[in-house]
Amino acid sequence: MRLKQLMRLTRQKINLPSVLAALPALSFLALSSAALLTGCGGGSSALGNPPTVVNSGVTSTQNLSFAYFQRCINPIFLTQLASSQGGTSTNTCAASGCHADATGAGGAFRIVPTASTINLNDVSNTVALIRASDMYKNFYSAQGEVVIGTPLQSRLLNKPLLRGVLHGGGLIFSDASDPHIQLMTYWINNPVPIGQDEFSTAANRMFTPADPMLGTCNTQ
Question: Considering the domain boundaries, does residue 44 fall inside one?
């Protein structure tokens, strides 16, 4: 008797017929949720991109070179580049509505377009002064889009190449052979030695001649 009473009370509490009637709708919701998750980065997209690639959890004790960034990377963000988004147009990465520091709509990556070049041969430009500059803000933001030593997992390259990830600005560089991509790849692949900061003079080898203000940017 007690068992029958328990079963009767259980059916009353959970209203079993109602649950059974709702199962088809619940199944539909589950399938719909899966479809939405796929459309938010997994699987293929409306733009024909492969599954989303995100920066890995790799951490590094190394830094990228500030000298190379200032001379070879920052100018890329100020260059007029063609975009395939919504037809062909030309703009800079640091333009308003893109990655401009004050008016950008490009997420965490921001560039101060008016950042002044810092004379690294001038000893009066201390580390503290450089780190307070707009050029350093650009360096810091760009390095935040990078997995040091791993260009293939770095958003700084993957986004403008549409390499496994969406980019609001569309396709900027057709492939990895573009000279701008080669500069960024070299920068990512050549961090300063472990234990040295981003101002290490060891980075002078990245220029020919070895002068961070006058040398040509090496790419290999």
Answer: no
SS3 82: strand
11 and 77 belong to one structural domain:
no
Residue 60's pLDDT band (cuts 50, 70, 90): low
End-to-end CA, the chain: 85
Higher per-residue pLDDT: 155 or 29: 155
Q: Tell me the Cα Rg of the chain.
A: 26
Separation of alpha carbons 111 and 74, rounded Å: 9
Please state the pTM of the whole predicted model: 0.70
* Angle, alpha carbons 30-34-35 (nearest 5°): 115
Alpha-carbon separation of residue 65 from 44, 124, 172, 197 (angstroms) = 36, 19, 24, 8
120 with 162, same domain: the answer is: yes
Per DSSP, the three-state class of 2 is helix
Number of domains within the chain? 2
Closest to 131 (Cα-Cα) out of 142, 118, 147, 146: 118
Rounded CA separation 170/22 (Å)? 44
Residue 11 has pLDDT above 80, yes or no: no
State yes or no: pLDDT of 148 exceeds 90.
yes
| Single-letter code of the amino acid located at 64 | L
Structural domain of residue 27, as residue ranges? Answer: 2-39
